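Archive record:
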Amino acid sequence: MPQDVLMVKTQSHDYPIFIKASQNKPDLASQIVPFIKAKQVLIVTNDVVAPLYLADLQQALVAQGFAVETCILPDGEVYKNQDSINTIYDTLLKSHFARDCTLIALGGGVIGDMTGFAAASFMRGVNFIQVPTTLLAQVDSSVGGKTGINHPRGKNMIGAFWQPQCVLADMATFKTLPDREFAAGMAEVIKYALIMDEQFLAWLENNSDAINAKDGAVLGEMVYRCCDFKAQIVAADERESGKRALLNFGHTFGHVIEAHQGYGAWLHGEAVAAGMMQASLMSQKLGLIGADEVARIERVIRQFGLPTVPPSIAVDDALDLMGHDKKVQQGKIRLVLLKAIGDAFVTADFELSALKAVLSANA
């Protein structure tokens, strides 16, 4: 695949996702140049991604006449906090960045979320471009404008909706992505299939060998399909007042794992994978899906090297953490559950005893 372009339509503005598979090293500059408003550019990345891609991107932009500064943050979910945001602000202010500047997020979901939040809040909103380098970021967090940071009592509790000007996803970045990080991204891919399209789940099952081998063409098709799913949902519900909440399948359970274990101990995708199993078991317990469907879900999750069993967490601790989830409304925990594979819905209509039973299975 040379390149595909997918448009995301939102009330804020429409923007393209460029999906490409460079043959050798990624080309991270050429598509994004038209979306940089003025000369001042800040590339935000981390100390893992920087040695791989920062110099090439910075040099390419400087050659185009841009004044480029960089901000290199420590890698990891544990650093997705106010201190890191202040580091970005410090760089912007020390270099006298103006309101027409552009921030570029070069990295995974953590970098994308923080850079987007900094862009949304610096001078009440500046230009922002996503250059995701992980699978999870390419198929999920870079698309749709959710930005933010974590709080010790809850994941992504502080943030804003702020759409990027464009997204550039190059499959060549997967050549340097550790297998564990790649697998974590597959959790979000599987999620799309479970909530929206059973045929896509069958496609994943049939193409698992090529996906795990990181075949560029197959990955390009996979990323395109996931971004298309996400774009459809974001177009219908930009600020998560309805349908967009379906994208949180497995996340209410998964965020409990992340917060309880300490951010970074479990990768986000690993926690979501185990959370999807818990959500599937909850769906079975309520009589919505059967044992065969639960077994199929477990097989697919394992097929891509992801965990299906959460760590041991006391039920009261899990419920307390769930009480801080953004999907809580009027004091009621809301869960994304399955009526069938490919058919999800959001509900608070369940007995607490059923939820406790699922949570206690590994407590």
